[in-house]
Every structure is written in structure tokens, then in C-alpha cells.
Amino acid sequence: MIKKLSIASRADALSWYCAILLLGLILLGSIRENSAADESTIRGSQLFDRPCDEIYVVGEGETLHTISDKCGDPFIVEMNPHIHDPDDVFPGLVIKITPSNPRKFLR
Fold first, then answer.
1. Would you say 97 and 73 are in contact if contact means Cβ atoms under 8 Å apart?
2. Where in this chain does the record put each LysM domain (predicted)?
3. What is the H or E stretch that residue 66 is in?
4. How far apart are CA 64 and CA 23, in angstroms?
């Protein structure tokens, strides 16, 4: 019986070491993932200077005026006949953007 307890205690200790090792690898992977994400983060005014795609989906709190300023397209209403009321813009609305002065992405 002494051998069985000894083997069981070794197996128990080995399982704890494996659990600790697995937890350490998960934490290490998480740290690396976060540091890689920080390098590609857009900060400050860079968000407003990035170019807009031709197809744009309106986000929460955006208006045609803010989208026009951000994307450089003063003729959004004229290019989107499905917008009947410029004040009735809602999140998820898909619009076509044709920038008159393309902006460059800052790095």
C-alpha cells in the first residue's frame, strides 16, 4: 500500500506542475498578444486621418456632417439617393463615399 500512495502522490504532484506550466504558458501568450496589439493601435487624430472605404457603414453617434469631415466627401447626400432625410441617419446605414480630397494615413 505504501507504493500506491507514493505513486498517487507523485501523480498528484505531476498534475499540479502541469497545471502551473499550462497557466504560465497561457499568461505568456496573453502578454505577447497584448504587446503585439499595442503596436498597431491607432491613436489620437490618426483615427480621423485614415482613409474611408468606398462603402461606409454609419457608426453609433455619427452624423452626415462628421462622416463628411472624416472622409472628405461633401456630397454624401447627392451620391446616396436612398437617404431621404439627412437628419435621419442611424447606425448600420450603408452609404457610398467618394472623397474629393483623399487624406493620407499618418504613421
1. yes
2. 56-98
3. helix 64-71
4. 48
